[in-house]
Design a protein that fits this description.
Chain lengths: ~80, ~650
Amino acid sequence: EEKIQKAKRTYIVHVDKSNMPETFTDHALWYDSSLKSVSDSASVLYRYENVVHGYSTMLTTEEAEALGEQPGILSVLPEVIYELH
Amino acid sequence: TTRTPEFLGLGKSTTLFPASDSMGEVIVGILDTGVWPELKSFDDSGLGPVPSRWKGDCQVGKNFSASSCNRKLIGAKFFSKGYEVAFGPIDETMESRSPRDDDGHGTHTATTAAGSVVPSANLLGYASGTARGMASHARVAVYKVCWLGGCFGSDIVAAMDAAVADGVDVLSMSIGGGLSEYYSDTVAIGAFTAAANGIFVSCSAGNSGPIPSSLSNVAPWITTVGAGTLDRDFPASITLGNNELHSGVTLYNGKQLSDSMVPLVYGGNVSNSSGGALCMAGSLIPEKVARKIVVCDRGGSARVQKGVVVKDAGGIGMILTNTDTFGEELVADAHLLPSAAVGQKTGDAIKKYISSTRNPTAKIGPGTTKLEVQPSPVVAAFSSRGPNPVTPAILKPDIIAPGVNILAGWTGAVGPTGLQSDPRHVNFNIISGTSMSCPHVSGLAAIVKAAHPEWSPAAIKSALMTTAYTAYKTGQKIEDVATGGPATPFDYGAGHADPVAALDPGLVYDATIDDYLGFLCALNYTPNQIKSTTHRDFTCQTSKKYTLGDFNYPSFSVPLETASGRRGGADSSSIIKYTRTLTNVGAPATYKVSLYSQTQAVKMSVEPETLSFKAQYEKKSYTVTFKTSSMPSGTTSFARLEWSDGKHIVGSPIAFSWT
């Protein structure tokens, strides 16, 4: 259980762009700051601008849950691995 | 591909088809395993300048240079961050950290959708002909998101993000993952915004058929594509020692077996493990297999892998038999030893002969390519089936297209079996799956888009669906190879694609973004869930009654509750009303409605019975009333609603399911 909790996996973080906290002028700063508040090692893997607003990053389960509580965060979805049909 | 253009009627010369330069304005984006740019299928001679609006580019890698792209292959990128954080840095001795396709799947789907015309194409002499993509003058942009270890969601979203920014018109994704509500389905979320940006998104329905409710990619703003067969086969004769003659299929083209009979054994009888019947790796006893033909059951491992197992054990031939899962569906493979795949009935007959004969023998003849195979299309056994596992009130799959034994471009990195032990190099390969049917529809959508640039993705989808056919020229219903009987809308959705008819559908169900948002309200999504799905602020109006039945979709699914099990849907003895809106995309005309039903348990009527359109893009609504009576839980039945002006038939399947 301990190992699972500590294990990091990739999440796709959907943000509510129009609700960026006033303290930020730039989405990138907001993303970095929201990540820093839940994890001192996580970084943005991809930033998404068009089909999704948000970013992907590696987090532990706990960190993902904490991030999901933050204002402006719509959802923190664990990455799915797709297969060829 | 060879044969599918003719099979789909693309060979016909009709004024409906867009001119090649308007075809050249359409850009098809393919998310897959990358591309092999040297193929003639990406030849750009005859193509004009790249559309000026295009913002994509050619991402350079160790074995992929800027000159790998041209006026045909106008974009190529790779996305590997998600894959590399999970698996570590890509080992470039094992796979290309570039858009280059090491697998073959991506080249196959890209050339199916929009490959240039290549004469004398074939695989080892099979399926010869002029290969061309559905939209052979459209442009191709490739986004590599699938690697040896899989296709990672974070890479897929990044590719979708890039494709929308680059300016593709069609997004083709022959991939599938877990099933979930739309607000937690990354591909569905990305596809929503892509569709909202005017991009037609088509996805493979999945290969988990014939199990019911086995579909993938079922969001209503995605076109979900199932697989059907062509009128082409690759028969090989099998003669048993008792002079019984059987037929199978094969793509083997190497040294044939001698004409004399060869000892025949069943894998399950020459094994020291339970995996023998399936010819699993290491399961066959060489002393009992050497110089014999081995009968292996399909399933449990890759079909081509079984051939390697037999060959490694000293076998000189293989007969691969279907079990009940796949019935009589025959998928051909380019095995590395003389082999033939046979249906379940033939397989059972051969096993019976083996078990009742002291020294059973057999011989396998060479394969050939046979055309005009009937009946065709039939629904492929592996094609995933409805009802829709996420939203039963939306009928899925949407449509079927050719997906069995499809010849198209292939990588130069591996042979036709994809096995490391396969030394052969081919420009074209024959493979099967809904991965193959999806790019067919992507290419057909590109043709419709070129002919009608102003149409929305929903209108294009509607045109492909309401003109799809569900019966052969004989009037007989399209068959399902898994049952041997008539297929249903849970198998083929609206039917089999008919691109010529789709170019002039008469009327379309042109779902708008507000219709999709209303659909999410009908699902009782919270504002947060709607925002997660659509990245839009939208609040469902409390004064408005949103229903799934009124969602402006080109097909109907009516989930009914039996009196005992009343849950979400309407109770079974009740009156249900669905309202839909049709947009005229043809000349002014008056359409009359016709209703056909397989069941007495539902009485249907439509108001009004005629719709008169005086102008193009005029919209008219109608209401279908279903008066239903109770049926046992698990009952399904089907009906059909058609509007016709005598020239066009705007057809919609209706699926009733009592739970």
